[in-house]
Amino acid sequence: MDVSSTSVKDRSGPVISVHDLTKIYPAAARLFGDGGKEKLAVDHINFEVEHGEIFGMLGPNGAGKTTTIKMLSTLLTPTSGKATVLGLDVVKDSMKLRPRINLVSGGERGLYFRLTGKQNLEFFSDMYHVPREKRTKRVKELLDLVGLTDSAEVRVENYSRGMKQRLHLARGLVNEPEVLFLDEPTLGLDPEIARETRNLIRNLSAGGMTIMLTTHYMFEADEICDRLAIISEGRIKGLGSPYSMKDAVRNDTVIEVEAYEINGGCKEKLEALPGVFAVSLENLEGRQLARMVVEDGTSLIPKVASILEGHKIISIRVDRPTLEDAYIKLVNAR
Ligand SMILES: Nc1ncnc2c1ncn2[C@@H]1O[C@H](COP(=O)(O)OP(=O)(O)O)[C@@H](O)[C@H]1O
Ligand SMILES: [Mg+2]
């Protein structure tokens, strides 16, 4: 039985299905962060993505986002667990799966700088065996879609960062993927181009494509994702719509203290207070802003003040939690 041809039309089951997926990088290159020790990068994660969804994986650097997306796009073999995309096992059925998906990673790599934008897309179309008679039309459409028609004949070495990123996206579409994986699609782009990129992603989704992306920008996840997984230290700390994430902090309060010389030691003391869920510290010019997600703001203020005794306090205020606070709380959850 040809499973692949039936699953294309089958929209009842999840498009991506992940069970206890785990990746341990072997101890090898001492050059790497934790050189000499093996690294548990993804730790028994579970989630599903439905047809046409934009699913985001949100988390800080080193959380395991790229590792996850590489396993799902068949570039990296999981250590244990199981994942299927379009009903196909990412390990056993990788050859069947590859033509039906694509991955776009940001940055400078993966394009041919000596070739023009158009030539790049022609080259990648050939890699995916797009028939010649379709190729010309497809390349033209893709250049148009990402706004590079006017620069089609310009060598990529002369492209700006934003133009390269848009070409990357077009490259990811040459095989008309049913599932598109995007690793940090707006990383390092200026705000306007990042916004255009998000619009493009939304349009692709509206056209029926299933999209899974990673980001460490909270607002981006909030703005664009139907659902998201918050990942930290290889584990999923929260899963749901951006709106439902706010449930995690619905009954909490935020205390915001602006003062001089709040250091890591103070932060640890604040974190250790009973009823404190998370503390984030931001450096302002010559002073710091500590934002604490707490159970009950009013009763905690005297304790906070006593920890910060001797520091010049500029202000203490109580605030309502935002989605960002929910994120910080979930990322910090044990
Ligand atoms: N090839 C590798 N060998 C060893 N450790 C790695 C390798 N790639 C990534 N890591 C480590 O695995 C963890 C997760 O990395 P990554 O998936 O790139 O996180 P993210 O994309 O969320 O920033 C990090 O601690 C990183 O240093
Ligand atoms: Mg990454």
Question: What key phrases describe this protein's structure?
Answer:
disordered N terminus, Alpha-Beta Plaits, six-stranded mixed sheet, binds magnesium ion, alpha/beta, 334 residues, 12 helices, binds adenosine-5'-diphosphate, Rossmann fold, four-stranded antiparallel sheet
N-to-C span: 46 Å
Mean pLDDT: 90
The spatial strand order of the largest sheet comes to: 6-7-8-3-9-10
- Domain count, please report it: 2
Description:
- The chain is α/β, with parallel strands linked by helices and 334 residues long.
- It has two domains: 3-240, P-loop containing nucleotide triphosphate hydrolases (Rossmann fold), CATH 3.40.50; 248-332, Alpha-Beta Plaits (2-Layer Sandwich), CATH 3.30.70.260.
- The protein is built from twelve helices and 14 strands.
- It has helices spanning 3-9, 65-72, 94-97, 117-127, 132-145, 161-171, 191-206, 218-224, 242-245, 264-272, 297-307, 323-332, and strands at residues 16-25, 39-49, 54-58, 80-85, 88-89, 101-105, 179-183, 210-215, 227-232, 235-240, 253-259, 276-284, 287-294, 313-319.
- The strands form three sheets. Strands 6-7-8-3-9-10 form a six-stranded mixed beta sheet, with helices on both faces. A four-stranded antiparallel beta sheet has the order 2-1-4-5.
- Strand 9 (227-232) and strand 10 form a beta hairpin.
- Helix 4 packs across helix 5.
- The protein starts with a helix and ends with a helix.
- Bound molecules: adenosine-5'-diphosphate (ADP) and magnesium ion (MG).
